[in-house]
Amino acid sequence: MDDQGEGLVMDDGVCANITASELWRTTGYGRGRRKRTSCSRRAAVCLGLLALVLLSVTTGLCIKYRTERDQILNRYTGLPENAIGNYSRMERLEVQLETSYTSMAEKKDRLKANCTATAEERDQLASDKRTLEAKVTQLENQLKRLDGQIFHSATKDVWRESRKYCRENGGDLVVINNRKKQFEINEMSQNGWIGLSDESEEGKWRWVDGTTPTDKFWDRGQPDIWDEVDEDCVVFHTNVNNPLLTWHDHACSTKHLAICEKSAFQ
Ligand SMILES: [Ca+2]
Ligand SMILES: [Ca+2]
After folding, report:
1. How far is ligand 2, taken at its centre, from the CA of residue 229, in Å?
2. Is residue 90 part of a domain?
3. pLDDT of 197 higher than 90
4. For residues 76 and 87, what is the distance between their CA atoms, to the nearest angstrom?
5. pTM of this structure
6. Ligand 1 center from residue 199 Cα (angstroms)
7. How far out from the chain centre does Cα 76 lie?
8. What residue ranges are annotated as transmembrane (predicted)?
């Protein structure tokens, strides 16, 4: 502000009764005022333009702010939903895993039980195998012992002819004088005459070697008289159920294979 302006302000405040013409004439106030009015208008226009610019900038910033805010809100609004969805999926997955684990545990228990049963069965089979192997070895030993000692005729014949066959082949009808030999003959599964008869004296059973039987292995109901025929000679009938019940007396005139024993007179 210049001195003239300051004086004008002082004049406006103190000398309110001075007329405009007097002021125009004495101080040139009108020219200064026109000049200042023009400046004020330009300033107002500038201020208005500035205001418009500011308004435009502010509006743009507001729009940008709102846009970014909405984007942020949308992004952060979506996060909880995604998080809930992920959590639900995690829960379902956990349930599935627990179910699978339970199923696997049950399968493991069943496999363990089966394994135990299989192991027991394996042990039992191994035990049975050992028993059978021992039995086979025993039978093989028996057969080796009898091999060449016990033999059979190829054809059936009466008791006397059967004995003759045995004697002509280096032996006689077999003598069974103990349980062990009875079992061994039964294992051979071959029926036939043996060297026992009461032909010389009824009821007095003797072996072909002249001895009398100590162990007797008559089948149930034997010896007997069948159809009123005297039965004086003995046939060995293999008995898989009871090897100690195999002797049957028959009529010596009937025909059977011969069970011979080389060692009888050797
Ligand atoms: Ca008799
Ligand atoms: Ca009989």
Report:
1. 9
2. no
3. yes
4. 17
5. 0.48
6. 6
7. 50
8. 43-61
